[in-house]
Amino acid sequence: MTPPPLVYVINLDRSPDRLAALGEQCGEVGLHLERIAAIDCRELDQIPWRTQYDDARNRREYLGPLTPGEIACFLSHRRAWGAFLQTNDPAAVFLEDDVIPLAGADEIHRVMQQVADFPRPLLCKLNTLHGARQTGSMTRLRRSLLPPLTGAAHGMNRAAAEQLHSFTAKFHEPVDVCLQRWWDHGVDVRIADPPLFEEKRGAGYASTIRPSGEGPPEGRLQRELRRPALQVRRLVRALLATARSRRGT
To answer: What's the whole-model pTM score?
Structure first.
């Protein structure tokens, strides 16, 4: 019998209540969590993050400078991937602490066994269909030309973790935006349908790992004005990569 997958939860030291709530909810469906201490955006000056953040490429290719929260979030995810790579396990689930499980351990285990057995590097987004619920049907892994921009719950096999950890040694965009670029990092990205996790909504559950609303209003406006062009560029890159794949090149 294959052991259940590792389930890592990225959690700030200053958010023990979130860890306790998620631990209770996951325990009810038979999941055991392993905590990864998130990097706090308030304490970035204590770590050498500038050696990993590619400021020049950010200015060339992204919507605007990353906020401290986005940088800390990316570094926290890389820390979790690195912890997984220190084990011998074939696959793992990675959660932020503002999600809730929608399925039991048996179904999550079944999906992650597919991820582990996949013959190529594979990342599966586990919380992509917002508002959808488990219907009793078995979750399938479907393709998407442009995977949704979410990193709050995903699973990956060892080959994917190795490839992404190496690919992101220098980063210039938020982690969820980076994970979307399958045509560049070379990891197959699938979507769990129906989803296995859901992001919490409502007062008190804005993400502490990837806080929104950082920075001056003019900076946020600049991002929104640039966003359509970035989305078009990514769609073109995805279409070209798909065409090359179909030609076998």
So the answer is: 0.89
